[in-house]
Amino acid sequence: MGYLLSYHTDTGRVKNVNQDALLLQSGCFKGEQIVLAVLCDGMGGLEKGEAASAAVIRRFAGWFRKELPVMLKKGLDRLENSVLSAWTGILEQEDEAMGIYGRRHGVLMGTTATAMLFAGGVYYIAHVGDGRVYELDASGDWIWQLTKDQTLAEREVEQGRLTKQEAESDSRRNVLLQSIGAGSCMGGRPVPSFMRGPVRRGRVYLLCSDGFRHEISEEELLRAFHPSAMAGESDMKRACIRLTELDKARGENDNISVLAVKAV
What we know:
By secondary structure, the chain is of the alpha+beta class. It has helices spanning 49-73, 79-105, 152-158, 164-169, 182-185, 210-213, 218-224, 233-249, and strands at residues 3-10, 20-29, 32-41, 113-119, 122-128, 132-136, 143-145, 193-198, 204-208, 256-263.
């Protein structure tokens, strides 16, 4: 199985600094493409949000280059436990390092982190914060949100005090229950959510920051990234840019980032 890859990131209408950081890397193992996609959204209300997101991206890039090849040689049947253990270690270590730095320098820094690995016909996801992963069916008829927002608004939905539609515009949608860095500064520890599933040929997978999807509906995502229209990476890039510009036209003030992966 192979993959088409694309991404786009934009500082947005208001901010002077892009605190989002992205990673999209591809390699080959026994003739099959392996892809790692990571999106980190530095927390805009905190100092050094861009440094926090970049630090996590560097760690994942190093893991993909140095550690993943060793894991793959041990067999795909053992990959899941190895990946989850390594990713847990990366996120815990970065959380601790940011907490130490923050206490020493009197700052509060943090980032969300959503990572997705495609290997051996399986995807693996680790998730902290409110980035999202969507999966679009090859028919273009269905879209699924694979991750769950770790926000106060989402918790209200789970407890029946808000509907899903109400949560999309509720002010508590921006109140994170977990992050990398800020939790450590405040005495808490993030607990990543992990998931896995089969990669289906023809499907499109999107990783996006909250700034990308606040002003865009799932129906609009489905139309823009309709798998039948994603014949090449240039098509995917145009869709990424088109929705980013639509976000800004609708008044989105945050940084805006999206990564797109199509299984072919």
